[in-house]
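Please, does this match?
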Amino acid sequence: MRELEEKLTHEEISQWMLFDVHWGLPDVVGDIQNAILCALAVNMMRSAEQPSVDPSEFRVLRERGPEQQDFVMTEAQRFKAAFGS
């Protein structure tokens, strides 16, 4: 958050907020949840001879680096990260 505050101007933040209102920003967690549901449905309906599928086969958004690896943090972890332990 500090990096955003240091690098983005107020106008840029306003433009991103407007973009999010109209089109929405990518939701990594939603993408993973949808991929899990798709894989579950396919695996439930496949025959025993067919190989199982993995949720990664249904992902639309891809991780770009370690900054997106902690998208599954719990609310408690987010609170601790934001406000300290």
